[in-house]
Amino acid sequence: MPSPTTAFDLIVRSMKLANILGARETPEAEEANDALATFNDILENWSTEPLSLWSTTNFVGATVAGQATYTIGPGGNLNTTRPSQVNGAFVNVAGVDFTLDVIPQLEFNAIHLKTLQQPIPQKLLYVNDFPLGLVTLWPVPSQEVPLTLTFDRLLTQIPTLATSINYPPGAAKALRYALAVGLCTEYGLPVSADLGAQAADAKADYKRANKQPVKASFDNALTGGGPVWNWRTGG
User: Fold this and answer.
1) Is the dihedral of CA 86, 81, 48, 7 positive or negative?
2) Radius of gyration of the chain (CA)
3) Which of 14, 51, 72, 201 is 20 to 30 Å from 95 by CA-CA measure?
4) pTM here?
């Protein structure tokens, strides 16, 4: 299905795939709105799957002198979309970018002096709380500096049936078939083997296109910091 389209058009095609509607039928208003709610449930669920998110974004906020923890999300200290996870971060001081290590909770817990302050923070802890996430910096910034966070762009909820939606190649088909399967469940209809297989294949193709190559790396402690052996030349 070409993009852009409207939520209503996608829903109609999904309902026909699920055999809820005939070839020339259209849903009643209540049916269409119920399907829209199901569609938004699917978008919310897919937002928990990193390979279902087709882009990342950089958000630039600012630290506050003496403040370690910041809420992030609509209306938060960092007013943007609440991320499911933070993939990277850096601060800019005097025109120079300083990368922050994004660390898990247990590593943050092991820090003995959490109130230590200095101009440039070194580590960032992200807690995926709701409705606002929590970003904690260590050491606590002692001055205001620009803070850039990199995180996955979550799939936006669709507010109305008339909303125009524009997805990258493969996403519209995958969502259309996923919605058809979801509607079969809601209407108590069997999911045909063909529909289930096509839904799985469409989603796999879409996620495959979002896969990022992984670069192998080694801790310097493992290599001893000495000369590197070239396996191609043997030297």
Assistant:
1) negative
2) 23
3) 72
4) 0.61
